[in-house]
Amino acid sequence: MTEEAKTTSRRDSPDLRHVTGPFDIIGDVHGCAGELQDLLHKLGYEARLFGTGDGRRAHVRTPPGRRAVFVGDLVDRGPSSPDVLRLVLALVAEGQALCVPGNHDVKFVRWLAGRNVKLTHGLDRTAEQFEGESPAFRIHVGTFLDKIPIHLWLDGGRLAVAHAGLKEDMLGRDSEKIRSFCLYGETSGEQDQFGLPVRYHWAAEYAGKTSVVYGHTPVPDAAWVNDTLCVDTGCCFGGKLTALRWPEREIVSVPAARVYAESRRPFGHPPVRPGVPVPDSV
Questions:
Q1: Is residue 211 part of a domain?
Q2: Whole-number mean pLDDT of the chain?
């Protein structure tokens, strides 16, 4: 049995090389709906939320020819995960956005399905925020997050987007191993002094021809490493919400309104695997 055959995912294909930019690739939002609106406005989008209860809606409009791309971790930690999802769903429904899932989104889907998951790392806040949401909205959100591609291979093969990272031989493919790497990056199976999984800086070894944009591990500022870019700048922890304009390679950010959650470890790339040279740009 091939590695791909082991995958029973209902997710859409990640091979979207026929889809071309320009794109605005947005880092981990983590429930920061106000900052997402601010960033979209700065990028030239219209993004408004109105109404209450079952009548809560999002109105969105993109700049001509552009499309938003979200690197995942839409939920948890921040003040309004439902509103973040309304904005993203509205953009996707209008054909104005693409999205990949983050590890927080995948865990949230399990919670929505009634699975036994621990309400940790901000999921407790999302669960509380969804108490007043309708069953129809819950189903819509769960179906969406369960179906989107595990990563995106775009723009004639020149660009890839994944939540936590992607190696060159994984491009356009889906399997259990690839899904794990896309959601969690390269890990050792151990825990660090903060009680969190030990991660390695996979980008330090990247030598592919496709530019990879990702999130997952908050960094103080987005900076290119071996033609990869982490756009998670820790908005929910009081940092910034960041986007990359592609193909312009322009980085655009807005500051967090406040600290919504305490980071358990300092911002920055994880260490490289033992024996791997440290890139000059790290």
A1: yes
A2: 92
Burial of 142 (0-12, 13-18, 19+ CB in 10 A): middle
For residue 50, give Cα distances in angstroms to 57, 114, 131, 132, 160. 6, 29, 19, 16, 34
Return the C-alpha torsion angle 147, 80, 29, 48, nearest 10: 90
Q: Is residue 125 part of a domain?
A: yes
| Helix, strand, coil in percent for the chain, rounding step 5 | 30, 25, 50
Q: Whole domain around residue 196: which residue ranges? A: 17-255
The string of pLDDT tens digits covering residues 142-177 is 999 999 999 999 999 999 999 999 999 999 999 999
Dump pLDDT digits (tens) for 229-245.
999 999 999 999 999 99
Provide the sign of the torsion angle of the four alpha carbons 36, 42, 43, 44, taken in this order.
positive
Here the CATH number for the domain that contains residue 162 is 3.60.21.10
pTM of the model: 0.92
Domain count, the chain: 1
Tokens of 4: 């791909």
Contact call for residues 260 and 236 (beta carbons, < 8 A): yes
DSSP helix/strand/coil, 118: coil
Strand partners, 59: 48
Q: Is residue 127 part of a domain?
A: yes
Is position 268 within any domain? no
Find all residues with CB under 8 Å of 45, minimum gap 6, and list them. Answer: 24, 60, 61, 62, 63, 68
| Sign of the torsion formed by the C-alpha atoms of 252, 258, 260 and 263 | positive
